[in-house]
Amino acid sequence: MNEFIQTLSIGGSGPTIAIKDTIDIAGYATTAASRALADAPPAQQHAEVVERLLALGWRIVGKANMHELAFGMTGINDYTGTPQNPQDAARIPGGSSSGSAAAVGLKLADAALGTDTGGSIRGPAACCGVLGLKPTFGRVSRRGVAPRESSLDCVGPFAREMSMLVAAMEAITVDFDAQAARAWQGACKVGIVQADATPEIRAAVERAARVADCAAHATQLAGLAAAFDAGLAVINVETSRAFGHLVATGKLGADLDARLRAAAKTTTAQLDAAQQVRNQFTADVDRALENVDVLILPTLPALPITLDEARGGTSVIAMSSLIRPFNLSGHPALSLPLPIEGSPLKAGLQIVGRKGQDEQVCAIAARFEAALAA
């Protein structure tokens, strides 16, 4: 099936989990769903997150499919196949952790691990109607994860319920306080970030704050657009360093070949400017969080486009306009399924917290989850 590159059965009798094909599992090649890496040798040892899961008795049921080289937002992969969007098979599953989100949404696994460099957990989570968390940068080990070096990338979990997402975070993180992550009691203050999204999704975000009984006020993050552009510059440079040599193989998908060739043209001046934006935007987010518990905004500005639209050339770069900035700043950010009035499809509610306070983000997400389900 296209949700898995390979079906596995490794580990104990605990919860089942799928592992994105950028995360090493000993004895299996890590191919990043690319023909250019199809002949990669088997990994010699587990990634640290895999070691931790297996030590706690979790069962790995598959290597999850993905957008090739984790460098794309659609999840379309003409080499390994395109995972099915559980909400609507005609729509893109989102990238790059498409197989991880789809496997959870289709109930092929209790949870999954993905990676998020420019929205690659939160985007597919919103597309597929599941939960996805990008932890604080550096909170979860990246040992044994490709690319080996990144100033943006985070390993994080997908799940259908917050209780399972918290269990997965507790398993893969050295010091995660699951008790603190399970419930948010008492007053809750949120800043609703003014974001460019469809009216229906903006209204759903405001409704979510009301039904969760949160005190809410509008918050401006003027640097969102600049942080998006800066995040693109950084990911272009770092992905080019990691995978640019694969262009010469002639084995990349057409979209990856084009993106990597373009990425290689990013200048030192652009990267320097991006680092300045990173510092400013990080300070802006920290400041916005001083008087609220979390920031909330849409995960994606619109519902996912169809596969036919994506294959026809409809641009998807704006999909990451509201998620990529928080890779640049490093703050924890979670996407929660968000009901839209009059639509059978759910969008995503993005919840952003202070650095290191992933538990608080989870606890408030659990509050929203319960309120939206009532």
From TrEMBL:
Domain Amidase: 16-362
Alphabetical list of InterPro entries matching this protein: Amidase (IPR000120), Amidase_CS (IPR020556), Amidase_dom (IPR023631), AS_sf (IPR036928)
GO molecular function, one term: catalytic activity
Pfam families, per the entry: Amidase (PF01425)
Transmembrane domains' residue ranges: none
SUPFAM superfamilies: Amidase signature (AS) enzymes
PANTHER family registered for this protein in UniProt: GLUTAMYL-TRNA(GLN) AMIDOTRANSFERASE SUBUNIT A (PTHR11895:SF151), TRANSAMIDASE (PTHR11895)
Full protein name: Amidase
Lineage, opening ranks: Bacteria, Pseudomonadati, Pseudomonadota, Betaproteobacteria, Burkholderiales
